[in-house]
Amino acid sequence: MNPADVIKLLLDFFGQGGWVMVLIAVVSLLAWRQGLNSWRQANGIVKDLELARKFFEVGDGLGAVSGLAGEAELSDGGEVKTLLAAMKKVVASRLQGLEESLGFLRTMAAALPLLGLLGTVLGMLVTFKVIQGYGSGQPRLLAGGIRQALLTTQAGLWAALPVLFFHQLVSSRCRRVAAGMDLLFHQMETKLGWSGKA
Fold it and tell me: Where are the domains of the chain?
């Protein structure tokens, strides 16, 4: 199948589903983009925490703390207590941003099946309009509205499934990051003893 045939097939598919299909496609693309960005955010936080853990495990407590707190505009030679507090603040802020993007992803996952349902209603309205104008003895004319109804329902459900999967995956990762962050900070506080020395 050449690219021209694929484009024609897609245009026909979207044409049969009506404008709701275009809306489903746009929301789906936005949700995928948000899901991938959320995944990247979570991975960035994990990498930063792993780097801090490596510094900490080799005995460079100050390096571990200042590595993550670098975003907080700290002066060189700051006390470990100050650095650790700044690091907690930076990581907590990044986790909050990740949770907000997960909220948007959850909204997109809920909206996609509803858009499919909207397409179903519009398709049935087309069918009833045909029945009103031509009666029910024209099955070929009725099929267009029924097809629109079924296509949009199917598209909304199929588009929502991977978005729900992404949401669950990133949400689970976010919970693990938060637990790992708490454990790492507790280990740092215990070992460093808030003494200001690594």
Answer: 18-192
Instruction: Give the pTM.
Output: 0.74
Encoded tokens for 135: 């009666």
Alpha carbons 153 and 157: distance in angstroms, whole number: 6
With a CB cutoff of 8 Å and minimum separation 6, the contacts of 24 are 17, 112, 115, 116, 119, 152, 155, 156, 159
For 120-147, how does the pLDDT look when each residue is reduced to its tens digit (9 = 90+)? 999 899 889 888 888 878 788 888 888 8
170-187 confidence digits (pLDDT tens) = 888 888 888 877 887 787
- Positive or negative, the CA dihedral 11, 16, 20, 24 is negative
What CA–CA distance (Å, rounded) separates 96 from 31? Answer: 19
**CA angle, residues 14, 18, 21, in degrees to nearest 5:** 55
List of residues 6+ apart from 27 with CB closer than 8 A: 108, 111, 112, 115, 159
| 100 SS3 class | helix
DSSP classification of residue 74: P
75 — alpha (psi -120 to 50), left (phi > 0) or beta? beta
Segment (H or E) for 114: helix 80-134
C-alpha angle 185/187/190, rounded to 5°? Answer: 105
Integer CA distances (angstroms), 128 to 77, 134, 138, 141, in order? 76, 10, 12, 11
Residue linked to tokens 């694929």: 6
